[in-house]
Amino acid sequence: MSENVPEAAVAEYKRGFACVDGEFVPAATASVSIFDHSFLYGDGVFETIICRGGRLFALRPHLDRLWASCQYLQITPPYDQEQITAFITELAKRNELSDGYVRVVISRGEGYPVSDPRKALKPKLVISMQGAPAVTRPPGVGVKLAIASTRRTPPICLEPRVKSNNYLNHIVAKLEAIAAGADDAIMLDLEGNVAELPVANIFARHGDTLATPPSNGILAGITRETVLRLVAEGAAGPGLRVVQRVMTAYDLFTAAEVFIVGTGSGVAFVESIDGRRIGDGTMGPATERLMDAYTELLGRDGAEPDLQLTTKEA
Predict the structure, then answer these.
(1) Beta carbons of 26 and 145 less than 8 angstroms apart
(2) One GO molecular function term (predicted)?
C-alpha cells in the first residue's frame, strides 16, 4: 500500500498485493504500460482460479489451458508453470488469502501502438487476487437470465477454447441482459442454438437426463468439466445421466430445472429466463445435490482433478 494512501480509503478489490513480472507490489499502485498490447487490443490471455480454505482448485488444468491459449496466439509465457505456481503461492501468503480468487494474465507485452504482434516482443505476467466474488446471492435466490440477441462469436471467426482478454462479445450480451432487468445473458450461436453465458456454462434437466451444449462452440469451462465428472459419479442423484447435445431455448423453457456453472458463480440455479419461471422457480434437487458436492470438493485436500479441456468433441 502506498504510504500516502490509507488502506481504508482504497477500494477493497485493490487492497493487498499483486505480482507483476515476479515483483510483489501493492495492488493499488500496480501498473502496466499504456502501450501494452493487451490494454490496447485485448491481445493476451487469462485464467481465474478459485481458492477455498487456502487450497487452489484445479490449478494445473487452469495453467494448462493458459499455456494452450498462449500457444494458439503465439505468445511465449515469460515464466514456466512452476515459477507461476510459486508466484501464486507467495502472493496468497502475502495476501493471507483463504477463500477467494486468483487471476493470472499474460499479455503480448508493450510495443508500438499498432495491431501488429511483431511490435510487442516481451510478454508480461500479472497476478492479482480477490477475497470475495463480485456478486453474492442470498440462499434460495436464483439467477434471472435473458436471451441476448448478440450471438456467440462462431469458431470460424475465433477459436472459443482460447480464453483471451477480449470479452467484448460477452460484454455486449451482458449489457442487453442488464437492460432487460436480468442478472446475466444466455448467448445463442448463429443457428439459434444455446451456447453459453458470458462467464458460465448452462445445464437443463428433463426427467433423469441433464443436458448441456456441446463444447465445440463454447469455452468449455473447468467447472463444467468438474460437474460432468460429478454427475458421472452419481453426485446429482441416482439414475441421472448427462448428455452433451444441441439445445434451443425450448429445452430451457420446458426444463424441470436449469442451472449455471462457473468459477465465479459455482453451481447456481436459474429462477427465470426472459421472465418465464423455470420449474417452480426454486432450486431443483439435482442442482442442490451438485452444489453440495461441488462445495465439498472445493474443500477437499488434494482436490486436483485430471481434466482435459483442449480437445474438441467429435
Answers:
(1) no
(2) transaminase activity
